[in-house]
Write a structure and sequence with these properties.
Layout (H helix, E strand, L loop, with lengths): L3 E5 L2 E6 L1 H4 L19 H23 L5 E4 L8
Antiparallel strand pairs: 1-2, 1-3
Length: 80
């Protein structure tokens, strides 16, 4: 499951998904900047809810790309 995805006019330019939060190997270059790396789904969902806006800004700065929008998985949004 993708937790967060960032987009520009070309489409999706980055995301954080199971390759990150279920990772066993030490490398990670996704949107979360390594915060969710190997953390497991529940912790990664908490991290993403709390830190998504910061990650998006940093990802755009780090990659030199303009982030036009981002989406957080609907499964993470509060149910009220």
């Amino acid at each position: 499951m993708t937790l967060i995805a960032v987009y520009n006019s070309s489409g999706c330019i980055g995301r954080c998904d199971a390759k990150c939060y279920e990772a066993q190997l030490p490398e990670c270059e996704c949107v979360c900047g390594g915060v969710n790396h190997g953390a497991g789904l529940a912790k990664a969902m908490d991290n993403t809810r709390e830190l998504a806006e910061e990650w998006v800004k940093e990802y755009g700065r780090k990659t030199g790309q303009t982030v036009e929008r981002y989406e957080i998985s609907p499964l993470q949004l509060p149910l009220f």
